[in-house]
Write a structure and sequence with these properties.
- With about 250 residues, the chain is α+β, with helices and mostly antiparallel strands.
- It is built from 9 helices and 6 strands, in the order ααββββββααααααα.
- Among the domains are: about 40 residues, no CATH class; about 55 residues, no CATH class; about 80 residues, no CATH class.
- The strands form 2 sheets. The chain has a 4-stranded antiparallel sheet, with no helix packed on it. A two-stranded antiparallel ribbon has the order 2-3.
- Helix 6 packs across helix 7.
- The relative contact order is 0.06.
Length: about 250
């Protein structure tokens, strides 16, 4: 091309090279028969074309596979995101397959979850508690019962729990304290304290305890003053004050 197109070509500016090349390809290079290129996109014979097979309708699987063990809080991590799995798979091994537009989480027997691109980059909320296998010593049963008690305290308990798990080392300690506070101050008071904690991003049993204690100390606001209309109470006779001590004191001065 350099010998045929540029040889002897006189252009006024470099910007005219591309338009001139397009004209040369359309009128000279692509219309002549040579080597293996012609203006026809099919370069083989008709006999060869008849033997071609259709393309595979299934695209090549480009998913990035990663195997890991789910946490005790039945979550799995991929890059900087955390995804939830059914509760019975806590501490079990699962397989993650990441695509540009979705993430699939599977076990050996079934697919658990497929997240679209809209959910990638955000933290997915915890799935509802499912029946879990209990250990012989009853530790798992006790943890599940505590979690159920806590989640029943407030409509915001789920979100407050996630905040505690992200910020506190021992979430179970805070849950146990808050459940105990509900037995002292009542569920409604704890529900209101949890809502305040959500508003101020304060996630701890200490914050809930302080709010409950402060509100327990609040004295009721005084009510409106009601005046009586009974005539017998309004007709009150007051004796005239005795001013004689003041008069004697004045005379002595």
């Amino acid at each position: 091309m350099s010998k045929n197109f540029l040889n002897g070509l006189d252009l006024l500016s470099f910007s005219a090279v591309n338009p001139a090349a397009e004209v040369w390809l359309a009128t000279i290079a692509n219309v002549r028969i040579h080597g293996k290129r012609t203006s026809d996109p099919w370069t083989g014979s008709k006999d060869e074309q008849a033997l071609l097979q259709p393309l595979n309708p299934m695209p090549y699987d480009i998913g990035r596979i990663q195997s890991q063990r789910a946490s005790k809080q039945f979550r799995v991590a991929l890059d900087t995101n955390h995804y939830s799995v059914p509760a019975e798979l806590a501490s079990q091994r699962v397989t993650l397959k990441a695509y540009p537009d979705r993430v699939c989480i599977t076990t050996r027997t079934s697919s658990l979850r497929a997240m679209s691109a809209a959910t990638i980059g955000v933290r997915i909320s915890r799935t509802p508690i499912i029946r879990r296998r209990c250990s012989p010593n009853g530790a798992t049963r006790g943890s599940s019962a505590l979690l159920v008690q806590f989640l029943s305290l407030s409509r915001d308990a789920q979100a407050y729990l996630e905040g505690i798990e992200q910020r506190r080392v021992n979430p179970r300690h805070h849950l146990r304290k808050i459940v105990a506070l509900s037995e002292i101050y009542g569920v409604d008071a704890v529900d209101r304290a949890i809502q305040d904690g959500m508003a101020f991003a304060a996630y701890s049993c200490e914050y809930v305890a302080n709010i409950l204690e402060m509100r327990a100390r609040e004295t009721p606001e005084p009510g409106a003053l009601h005046l009586t209309r009974r005539q017998d109470l309004l007709d009150i006779e007051i004796a005239a004050p005795d001013l004689s001590p003041y008069e004697r004191h004045g005379d002595g001065g």
